[in-house]
Specification:
heterodimer; A: alpha+beta; HIT family, subunit A; 10-stranded antiparallel β-sheet; 3-stranded mixed β-sheet; 6 helices; about 25% helix; globular; B: alpha/beta; Rossmann fold
Chain lengths: ~350, ~120
């Protein structure tokens, strides 16, 4: 029988198809590979640096900040044709019954490698660790602008996930407001805290560690888990064990562990599920106030295995066509998570 | 005299750009699609190219890629009715992306600026 399952943070129901659950290995057949264009001109390749705006950060393979012209491992550049403008006025104004403000914000692109790699899993463990360092470094720098309320670090892997260029890259969006997806989590964790005096994500960690049905990996700093009320097949979370609302406060050891977890997760999708398209993002608490002290930062990866149809759009209730217990078992058998 | 290649499938718009750019003192050649645009690029060796995106035969992004393979330095402006392609990072191979407007002031300013930089 299908089950309604409740997301205790968002206070929303999802439907998990337990009876007609699709076997995890069958998702391999639905691979949507990126169409590689090895001969296309790529603005992110080494040698084409003049096609991007001047970089805000260039680091070498050892993680040192280096100057323009030096060999690089990761470059961070502002969006060349931005939808959000860093020097726009940050003033909200009334228009009749409506409200508007100028399109203030920051949009940066993190180019993962000078080589034309097309999947983040092609990065080495050291490169992934460097990427995590760059995420934090940029977040701390952006945070200095007190007009910025929230930062979203995200990656689109594959055309179906919205990647417009195959060269592996992440993006950072810094906004003068907290976006609805984050606010729903913040309100949800606040509501849960008010009711129980506990953090919802800390409770999830403890329950998943005790039950182990959806647990993929555990180390001293993080767990990798398939969420109980999963909205998507193979939806995967990386959650820090230490309660902390903002990722920029993580220690060096936590960065090591997070990079290790991230590397294993992207390797799994590349090697065991034949390179599906996916989106990942880091949800971290608001930057400028304590509204999220009960909030618990985390990473979410959403594979593109299903399309929201009329039912999901009309009701807001997602249907997951396999169970997180099933997919967790499959992931555990892969031997990748160690 | 600087030569500009305008690649634009809509004939009235193509002619308008041509007249406006001639008035600015440029030599202008035009093409109605990407294939003809590429041929003219090879034949005429322009100093600057403006490219529409949605065109028959070969679209503007394909043309941009084809030209950039041969010349990383020639100034190229994408001049499209559609702003959403700014979120396609392959457009970064162009020097500028402008959304079409009935007021050609920004377009002409950008042409002047890019030719000056060259």
């Amino acid at each position: 029988m299908p089950e309604y399952r409740k997301d205790i943070i968002l206070d929303e129901w999802v439907i998990v198809a337990t009876e007609r659950a699709k076997r995890p290995e069958n998702f391999r057949e639905e691979k949507i590979k990126v169409e590689k264009k090895p001969d296309a001109v790529c603005p992110f390749d080494s040698g084409n640096e003049q096609m991007t705006p001047p970089e805000v950060l260039r680091v070498d393979k050892d993680g040192n900040d280096v100057n323009e012209g030096s060999p690089w491992q990761i470059r961070v550049v502002p969006n060349k044709f931005p939808a959000l403008i860093p020097n726009a006025a940050h003033l909200s104004m009334q228009y009749g019954i409506y409200m508007f403000m100028d399109g203030f914000g920051i949009h940066e692109v993190i180019i993962h490698s000078p080589e034309h790699i097309t999947n983040i899993s092609e990065l080495s463990a050291l490169q992934i660790r460097l990427l995590v360092e760059v995420y934090i470094k940029r977040l701390l720098e952006i945070k200095k602008d007190t007009r910025i309320e929230s930062v979203i670090i995200m990656l689109n892997q594959g055309k179906e996930a919205g990647a417009s260029l195959e060269h592996s890259h992440s993006q950072i969006f810094a906004l003068p407001l907290n976006p609805p997806a984050l606010m729903k989590e913040i309100y949800g964790t606040k509501r849960y805290f008010d009711q129980t005096k506990r953090c919802a994500m800390c409770d999830i960690i403890n329950f998943e560690l005790s039950e182990k049905k959806r647990l993929i990996f555990e180390c001293s700093e993080f767990i990798i888990v398939q969420p109980y009320a999963s909205r998507n097949p193979f939806e995967t979370w990386i959650v820090p064990k230490r309660h902390c609302s903002n990722i920029e406060n993580i220690s060096s050891a936590e960065k090591d562990s997070f990079a290790h977890c991230l590397g294993m997760v992207v390797d799994f999708f590349y090697e065991e599920l034949s390179e599906p398209a996916f989106n990942y993002y880091i949800h971290t608490g608001p930057l400028q106030d304590n509204v999220g002290s009960h909030y618990h930062w985390h990473f979410e990866l959403i594979p593109k295995f299903s399309i929201k149809a009329g039912f999901e759009i009309a009701t807001g209730i997602d249907i997951c066509i396999t169970t997180p217990e099933f997919t967790a078992e499959f992931m555990n058998k892969s031997g990748i998570f160690k | 005299m600087k030569k500009i290649l305008v690649v634009e499938d809509d004939m009235p718009i193509r002619n308008l750009y041509k007249e406006e750019l001639i008035d600015e003192g440029y030599d202008v050649v035009t093409a109605p699609d990407g294939v003809a645009g590429y041929e003219l690029y090879r034949k005429e060796m322009p100093d600057l190219i403006t490219i529409d995106i949605k065109m028959p035969n070969m679209n503007g992004l394909e043309l941009l890629d084809k030209i950039r393979k041969e010349d990383k330095d020639i100034p190229i402006i994408i001049y499209s009715a559609y702003g959403e392609f700014t979120q396609n990072f392959s457009t970064w191979a162009a020097d500028e992306y402008l959304v079409k407007s009935s007021d050609l002031t920004e377009f002409k300013n950008k042409v002047r600026e890019l030719l000056f930089k060259k």
